[in-house]
Amino acid sequence: DQIMPLASEPCQNTKSKLVDLAIRYPEFQTVSLLVNSEVVCSTYNGLVHLSMLSNDSRKNELILMKSKVIEPGKIIGVIKKSKGKNAVSITLNGRSFFYILSLIDSDENFQIQAFNQWVGKEGVLHDGISRFNLISYSPKYNFNVHTYISFNTYVTELYQRYGWIILLLVMLSIVISRSVFLNVEKNSSVL
Predict the structure, then answer these.
(1) N or C: which end of the chain has fewer CB within 10 A?
(2) C-alpha distance across the termini of the chain, in Å
(3) Alpha carbons 142 and 140: distance in angstroms, whole number
């Protein structure tokens, strides 16, 4: 919202502000201003005058794609926010995603999914929805981080965290079962 008004100013007046923003946030790869879906100013000169992300595309949401310009073939994320004919587009370096995934847990296969595409630690962009059973959503940017945890991993984790509670419940169940069995046996012998 802070830089949206800059789209109506000449690029020579706004470029230094865009560069300052890109420097302050190292995960930003480029910051671009668009008017009618055409880049009018960018921290990367190669994007100027290119058409990017039409006005009817999703707004304020993460889109995963392969870079065609800056680092061809590398994964990038794009967030675009529009207001009328003006828009701001920020591309995020794909390495940021991999860094986030490595912080979560190096042993599990976590993935970031946006719409019908996902990327995992290996850095390959996949189409479709991957198999998962543990998920965390970002309501603002419409993406999620998810993983698939096997039944064995799940049981092992439960046992490690709650083993003493499970053991206590089993022992309590045995005591209650034995008590019920003895009472039923005692009551049936009276008949």
Answers:
(1) C
(2) 83
(3) 6
